[in-house]
Specification:
434 Repressor (Amino-terminal Domain), single chain, alpha+beta, 5 strands, 183 residues
Length: 183
Amino acid sequence: MAISSKNPKDDGRRVATRSAGSRRASDRVATNPTMKCETCGTAMTEHVEAVPLMALPSVIIDDALVAVCENGHRDVTISKLPQRLRWVALRLIEKSTQLTGEEIRFLRKHLGFSATDFAAFMEVKPETVSRWENEKLAMSTMREKTLRIAVKSGPAILEYEIRHTKTARPMKLQSNVALLAGV
């Protein structure tokens, strides 16, 4: 799996890099008669293929198991997907450049937020989240740091619920007069 970036010299094409232990498509091609296409019911042929991560197309998964039937229907299986998504999220927050809208959306979804909940978490309007994700507005440095810290901390940071009340009232404290008299 590799995170690739668009290089101006390559006309926007993405290039996947392979790790030393990755499998190549030629290493494994097999017809699995027990695996039937859910759409048409025919047997499927399996092979290993590099596929873009749907949530973040600039990320290439180079060892996805792809099953294809004779009618062209595809079933893509990515092993250890939760661990890979966490790995991608951690690589994104370590990058030195500003996050793109696509990356902000990926990290928001990785944290499990809807756009509305993410807006509340970041203390902005939902429209602002939409503008960040569609790259119509750049995320401020402070908000980007908050997002990166939330991803780095993982779910633990989201377990704390902060409740805001409409009116704050002072606490009433009652002292025990008998105890104070004995002092």
